[in-house]
Structures are given as C-alpha cells and as structure tokens.
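Lab manual, section 2.4: Encoding a predicted structure.

Procedure: take the sequence of the chain (346 residues), apply the prediction step described in section 2.3, and record the output as structure tokens. A sample record is shown.
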Amino acid sequence: MENVLRPVVAVAAVLVVTLLAGWLLDLLLRQADARHTETLLWGLLRRCGVPFRLVLGTALLQASHRQAGIFPAYGSLVGHALTLIMIASTAWLLVRIATAVVDSAYARYAASAPDDARVRRVRTQVTLIQRVVTAVAVVVAAAAMLLTFPAMRTIGTSMLASAGVLGIVAGIAAQSSLGNLFAGLQIAFGDTVRIGDTVVVDKEWGKVEEITLTFLVVRTWDERRITMPVSYFTSKPYENWSRGGAQMTGTVFWHLDHSAPVAVMRDKLAEILKDIPEWDGRSASLAVTDTTPNTILVRAVVTAKNGDDVWTLRCAVREQLITWLAAQHPYALPRVTTSESQPPPA
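Recorded output:
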C-alpha cells in the first residue's frame, strides 16, 4: 500500500506547490501591473505563467521522483523524460520573457516617439529580432535535448569533425534560403523598407504588412496579399512612398479644349481643396503642361500626408472639377470641330 500512496502523495504535493506558486506569481504580477501603469511589462509577463508552472513542476518531480518511488522500475527513463521536458519548458519560458521585455520596450517607445516612420522602423527590427531569438532558442534547446541521449554524445566528435564539409554542402544547397536570411537582416537594420510602408512592386500598390527573415507580405489596396522573397527588395528596384517621410505629392490631369478658362479653374481648385479633408495645405497649383492640335493638357498638383490620402485627394479633385466644368463651362470640354476652316488672309 505504501508503494502506491507514496508516489500519489508526491505527485499531488508537487501539483499543489506548482499551482500555488503559479497563482502567487500571477498575483504579484497583477499588483505590479496595477501600480506601474506606465509600462506593459508586468502585464505581458503574466503570459509566462504556463511555462513557469511547467518548469517548476518538472524540477520538483525530477528532484523527488526516485525518493517517491514513481515507476521505480523505469527510474532512468522517467528521469530522462523529465530532463527533456525541463529543457523544452525552460526554452519556452525564456522566449516568453524575452518577448515580453521587447514588446513592452517597443510599446513604451511607440507611445513617446513623434515620428511615425521611426516607430515603424523600430517595429520592423523588433519583429525580426524576436524571430531570430526564437529560432536560436529552439535550435539550442533541440541540440541540448539530443545531447542527453548517449548515442548522440558518442557520435558528437565525428559530427564536429565533419562540420566543415557539411557546412559547405549545406551552404551550397541552401544558397537561396541563406540569401533571403541575410536580405531580411539587411532590411531590418538597413531601414530600406519597414512594416507599414506604402510600396509599389511589380506595378502593384500596397502596404507592407509583415516582414520575416525569408519573405515579405504586401497588402494591396483591394485586400489581396502578395508574398515576395525579401531578397527582391535588395536586388530589384521598387517604389517606397514612405521613405524619408509619409507626405506625398499627387498630380491630376485633364484634356480640355483650347478655350478652357484656366485662371478660373485655378481659383476653383483652391475652393475645392478647402472642403477636402485629405489635403494637408502644403501646396496646390494648376498649369497647362502640354498642347495638341485639338486639346490642352492641364495638370493640378496637390499634396497629402500619406499615400492613401493622396489617392483619395486626386480622385476627389478630378471628379469635382470635371463636374464643375460640365455644369458651368461645357465649352471647355474636348469636342470635335465640324465647321469649315477659315481661309488665310490675303
């Protein structure tokens, strides 16, 4: 009877201690979060509750399973399994802590930084750094788990001896993947493109939605997602409308008759812009930029605070001004002349 009760009592005690410690840690973090509202760190650290309980419970079981007589016939197997769980849960806990620290620092920086472009740059770097840290933690944890097997320790020397040859072979085989990996790091710290930037790639206009170490996602204006390798942005030209600031200048063109009242159109443009909220008030002009035997080309230049607003502003100016011309000055619209030509003077 004792052989049955001792393991059950030991497991129950470990479970109670683990749950009590997890509850106490969560209580302390909640109190700290309530006292320090200026930072999100304590609230984000509450996400570490599950891996913390797993690490604590595994450590207690690993220290007491032999004395408690938990599966005494398989003591070595139980200890090995607990070691594997301990390594995996510790890596999980460290990743959660690092993510909470980085996220809280970014949130605090984003709340105080006035420059949106700089905030998006830091966000891009933080995202890629988190992915790198997670990948390194997973690789190290997997290697540590493999080294707990005696067979893996035995062949470790031969593996290290052949690492040079294997590295060359892997480098040749994964040349494209490594190129994307280094391109992702170059994008993160070279500030060439950031999350939230408005870009034009392959004649497609959209915003950068996600950047990883190997690919980049662009969300187009019609809600499509274009997934591209990050090496594209380091080897081919593209338009970045948010580079150096989000402010944009847009143009609107009209083909009109030679008799179009350009001066009156210029005044009407200024009147229209006052009622369009997307116009940022920096600049506005209207001029005749070209002429043909039948029409003239009138161009308006307007400004907005970002790419989305400049598109809306261009459409609104084009629509309202052409509607006004059709209603007030229909003679200014292009037409085909059917009257007889005038003879030259004698």
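Check your result against the sample. The chain has a mean pLDDT of 79.
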